């Protein structure tokens, strides 16, 4: 679950009860990331931590060894159809070099013309609400 909410703490238990196996929250939405990470784990879920485009990637670093996945937003959250922000890719590169085993994802504006920028050497997973791919060989080659 990627929770784009202002108080992510209040949704941990309901999402666990609903069967979520991972809970991703925005670092900017909580005052106590450590306590929230602990609560998510105690409720039997993996932890994902997202950062918005305006947030420094170094702000995520203290939590990187306590999470299962880092999510770099490549659009401003909450509005579909935005253009992919290629200038977010250095954040992905920095995370990959600093935390080589961390699962890193990008979210937002990913489409047939931008997917290669995400997949090249950095992230292992891609997330997109609007990407529809019928023939992967045209994108990956």
Question: What characterizes the major β-sheet?
Answer: 6 strands, parallel
Q: What portion of the residues fall into strands of 2 or more residues? A: 15-25%
Instruction: Tell me the count of domains.
Output: 1
- Named CATH topology: TIM Barrel
- The shape, in one word, is globular
CATH top level?
Alpha Beta
Corresponding CATH architecture: Alpha-Beta Barrel
Tell me the name of the CATH homologous superfamily: Aldolase class I
Supply the helix-strand structural class: alpha/beta
Cα gyration radius (Å): 15 Å
Helical element count? 5
**Widest sheet: strand ordering:** 1-2-3-4-5-6
Catalytic activity: D-ribulose 5-phosphate = D-xylulose 5-phosphate
GO molecular function: D-ribulose-phosphate 3-epimerase activity; metal ion binding
Keywords: Carbohydrate metabolism, Cobalt, Iron, Isomerase, Manganese, Metal-binding, Zinc
EC number: 5.1.3.1
List the helices and strands and how they pair.
Blueprint: E1 2-3, H1 12-17, E2 22-26, H2 33-42, E3 46-51, E4 69-73, H3 89-98, E5 103-107, H4 115-119, E6 125-127, H5 136-140
Parallel strand pairs: 1-2, 2-3, 3-4, 4-5, 5-6
List keywords for this structure.
iron, disordered C terminus, alpha/beta, TIM Barrel, 5 helices, single chain, metal-binding, 141 residues, ribulose-phosphate 3-epimerase, 6 strands, isomerase
Short characterization:
With 141 residues, this protein is an alpha/beta fold. It has helices at residues 12-17, 33-42, 89-98, 115-119, 136-140; strands at 2-3, 22-26, 46-51, 69-73, 103-107, 125-127. A six-stranded parallel sheet has the order 1-2-3-4-5-6.
């Amino acid at each position: 679950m990627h929770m784009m909410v202002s108080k992510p703490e209040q949704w941990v238990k309901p999402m666990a009860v609903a069967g979520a196996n991972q809970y991703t929250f925005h670092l900017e939405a909580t005052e106590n990331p450590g306590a929230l990470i602990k609560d998510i784990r105690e409720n039997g879920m993996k932890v994902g931590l997202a950062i918005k485009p305006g947030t420094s990637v170094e702000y995520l670093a203290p939590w990187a060894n306590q999470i299962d996945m880092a999510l770099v937003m490549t659009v401003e959250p909450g509005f579909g159809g935005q253009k992919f922000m290629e200038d977010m890719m250095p954040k992905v590169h920095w995370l990959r070099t600093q935390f080589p085993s961390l699962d890193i994802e990008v979210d937002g504006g990913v489409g047939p013309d931008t997917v290669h920028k995400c997949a090249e050497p950095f992230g292992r997973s891609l997330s997109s609400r609007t990407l529809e791919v019928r023939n992967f060989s045209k994108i990956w080659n």
